[in-house]
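Course assignment 3, question 2. Fill in each field.
Student: A.L.
Task: Predict the tertiary structure for the chain below.
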Amino acid sequence: MENKRFFLALFLSIVVIALSQLLFPPAPPVRTSTVPGDSAVRAPTTPATISVTPTSADTTAVSAAPDSIAPVAAGTAETTAVNTAKAIYRFSNIGAAPVSIVIRDYQNRSAEGGLVDLALPGMPLLGFRLVTAGDTVDLRRTPFSVTRSSNAEREVITYRTTAESLPVEISYAISRDTAASYVMEVGGKVTGIQDQGYLLVDLPSSLRSVERDTIADQQSFAYSFKPQRDHAGSVLFGDLDPGEQQFQPGPLNWVAVKSKYFVIGMLPPEGAPFSEVRLIGGHRTSKVATNALATAVVPLRDGSLSFDIYAGPQESQRLYRLGREFDQVNPYGWGFVQGVVHPIASEVIRALLWMHNRLNLSYGWVLIILGVLIRLALWPLNQSTMRSSLKMQEIQPKLQAAQKKYKDPLQQREAIMKVYKEAGVSPFAGLTGCLPALLPMPILFALFFVFQNTIEFRGVPFMWLSDISVKDPYYILPLLMGASMFFLSWIGMRNAPPNPQAKMMMYMFPVMMTVVLLNMASGLNLYYTAQNIAALPQQWLLARERARARAAGA
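Answer field:
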């Protein structure tokens, strides 16, 4: 039996190691090619696919960090501002592009201070190029005329110009309804296109870092996309070598650029997906990649274009309400485990938000309550498992006697199964005894991803913690978590038969988990600590029950 327990412990260790490899794999490339030195944007050969290759000007822009989208020419821009309850939008007539989006409800937590502005100074957030059967027209430096109209429901900014004899119109409609906050409706018309045309939309090449930990925020810079028939994908700026290209074919439900907590996403109307997106690595001046380039291909239908732009916080419920699976822009999990972790994490964050709103408590107390509730939900399973373990201890002498009496494997197996049947114990009771420890793990893994980029926890204080989304600066919670885990194991081993392997794990596992969670979000440590402390009374009661059973057996 000792050997069985040793191999069980060994098996669980392998599972932990394997899960860590699955949860933290290197990001797979989508499709990689080499940037040509000087080639032109080619016109599409079919309506379904367009090959987007950077021009020599584009390649130079990518290399000149962070100016992947051409900067607005000084002294020539006319800026138009639109104020809403949630945001302040500023547009430039050069390129007909937004150049600033200020989020009213969130503070810039970097040294700059003030409100969150997603744009870098002098850098437009979008760049437009028009592809027709004959040529590519660069609209990024083109001056537009502007008209403005408004009513009780929304405000519309319309830009018009004539480029290469083609009348071009691009408009932005911004709703006054707070339910549609952070969303702009982009529409337009290109007159005179004979064949299928495309609009190339350059997403922001970089974002302003607005977090106290600037490096961690910049390491989160990424482009995301959602193929219609696959999970959402995400490519970090740091995963793109300078000049490297990655190509994601369509149809695409959306494309986006995001930081740790904020996102700018393009969402086409239902039934009119984007054709593709091309990513290019930007020039690096440090170990942290702060710029890259992404170009989305928007098909023009009868010369018209239409899509939405969401520019705001990655609030899970708000993203979910936008539809088109845009909540996956903030994915929980990596690789193929995302399909398992993301639904769990989504339900966990939904439960936390519900408890926060209904109980009117801070997220710190909500995490403590969640940890306690998880342990209470597992109480019956723990009780059943422990009683099975007690019966297993009682029948150990009979099992050993059967093994000694019968040398023939078939007779030995039949005798052992008879002992199990008479005692009313399942032969798999030893394995099911691990379930109480394994069942909370999916929620713990889900919370790990939740705390990576869930803006609801951003800057939330609790007791001595100034922000539960970052590590405990005094390391109190990780140490308390490790101590509670050790104490839980120590009580669990009281009145149990001697087990050297279990005793070794009693010391090693708390130390390992303390090291792993030492620099993790303090909210994650708070949840795990609360769960361990909530399990202590039951563990103590089970230890007493085990002592009574041993005394009765003696």
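Instructor remarks: The chain has a mean pLDDT of 80. The first helix runs from residue 2 to 23.
Grade: pending
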